[in-house]
């Protein structure tokens, strides 16, 4: 399963905003964020900067994503996917069917 979802260079990229959110959630649930961050890096995950253009794109996505309850972090993910012209991977069904200018792939 991991190979399926990490095939290709784009599948292993995450925005700095989403990396921060992920590490915060790991720590909140009692995990070792430093250790898990190192593991993700070893697995080839790279952290992409959130650019000014990404931030503007995320802001502009608000009206289209508000009804589905997407967060700022969700919109940052979609903005990065749009910039990289890569699919955004999520397990959140609320993302499906949204017109966000990026392909969305559901993990489950």
From TrEMBL:
Pfam families: PIN. GO terms for molecular function: hydrolase activity; metal ion binding; nuclease activity. The keyword Metal-binding applies. The keyword Magnesium applies. Residues 4-96 form the PIN domain. Keywords: Hydrolase, Magnesium, Metal-binding, Nuclease. This is PIN domain nuclease, a component of toxin-antitoxin system (PIN domain). It comes from Jiangella alba. The lineage of its organism: Bacteria, Bacillati, Actinomycetota, Actinomycetes, Jiangellales.
